[in-house]
């Protein structure tokens, strides 16, 4: 086989493998249609396994578990919250054990798979709010997004550049 053909096959194989990349959470039996704001309406959400995500609003460490208050957003294809779209409501994630508030700081993005276990009453400012609660089976803390846009790699121009 010619070296050019071999190189072309290697590139095509790499592209095919990237296209088959799997998302980080196994959401095979998760209800993707149920949204946090709908889960508190009493339509049988309790016990349904969901895939939700959003940005952390607050963290409460209790003796045996950690509660994450999350502002939900629709998820992109990679299961990461799409914060450019409208919020889907707030919810609580219950994770057994300790989650460090420095890692799960407000503004960090998370995705979770688990059953809706009920609701809890709380407050958002002075407003009473009922949160759906998800028991985390799988929890993904997403890497921070870069705040600065990546400069273009291609530049066009004519002239002379002087620099020190």
Oligomeric state as shown: single chain
E-strand count: 6
Order of helices and strands: HHEEEEEE
Q: Pairing-aware structural class of the strands and helices?
A: mainly beta
What is the radius of gyration?
A: 22 Å
Strand content: 35-45%
Extract low-pLDDT stretches: none
Q: Which sequence of strands runs across the widest sheet?
A: 1-2-3-5-4
InterPro entries: OMP_Slp (IPR004658)
Pfam family, one: Slp
Signal peptide: 1-27
Protein name: Starvation-inducible protein
Describe the structure.
The termini are far apart. The model has no long low-confidence stretch (mean pLDDT 87). Helix content is 13%, strand content 36%. It has a single domain (22-141), classed as Nucleic acid-binding proteins (OB fold (Dihydrolipoamide Acetyltransferase, E2P), Beta Barrel). The longest helix has 17 residues, at 3-19. With 164 residues, it is mostly beta strands. Strands 1-2-3-5-4 form a 5-stranded mixed β-barrel. The chain has 2 helices and 6 strands, in the order H-H-E-E-E-E-E-E. Keywords: Signal. It comes from Sediminicurvatus halobius. Residues 1-27 form the signal peptide. Pfam families: Slp. This is Starvation-inducible protein.
């Amino acid at each position: 086989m010619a070296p050019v053909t071999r190189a072309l096959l290697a590139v095509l194989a790499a592209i095919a493998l990237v296209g088959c990349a799997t998302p980080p959470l196994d959401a095979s039996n998760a209800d993707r249609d149920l949204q946090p704001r709908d889960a508190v309406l009493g339509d049988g959400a309790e016990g349904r396994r969901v895939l939700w995500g959003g940005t952390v609003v607050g963290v409460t460490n209790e003796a045996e578990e950690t509660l994450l208050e999350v502002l939900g957003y629709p998820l992109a294809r990679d299961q990461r919250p799409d914060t450019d779209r409208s919020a889907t409501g707030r919810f609580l994630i219950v994770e057994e054990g300790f989650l460090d508030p420095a890692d799960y700081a407000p503004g960090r993005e998370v995705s979770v798979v688990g059953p809706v276990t009920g609701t809890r009453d709380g407050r958002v400012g002075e407003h009473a709010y009922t949160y759906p609660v998800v028991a985390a089976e799988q929890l993904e803390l997403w890497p921070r997004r870069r705040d600065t846009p990546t400069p273009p790699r291609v530049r066009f121009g004519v002239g002379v550049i002087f620099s020190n």
